[in-house]
Amino acid sequence: MAELKDWITRLKTERPELNDFVTKLEVFISDTGFNAAKFEKAVEVGLQQKEDEVRKTFIADAEN
Which residues 6+ apart lie within 8 Å of 18 measured at CB? Predict the structure, then answer.
């Protein structure tokens, strides 16, 4: 997967405004390719955290 890693490196150079986003994606890329299962799990966890935050806000508002 050298091509993928080379593309990531070029992207970070050519589009520095995307560096934060690309850096977050890099953890899902290995020598064997893109780890979709790990990525999907991370998305699920992140979405669950946001859902929990919103739920707590609604509960706090309802109690006031």
Answer: 11, 12
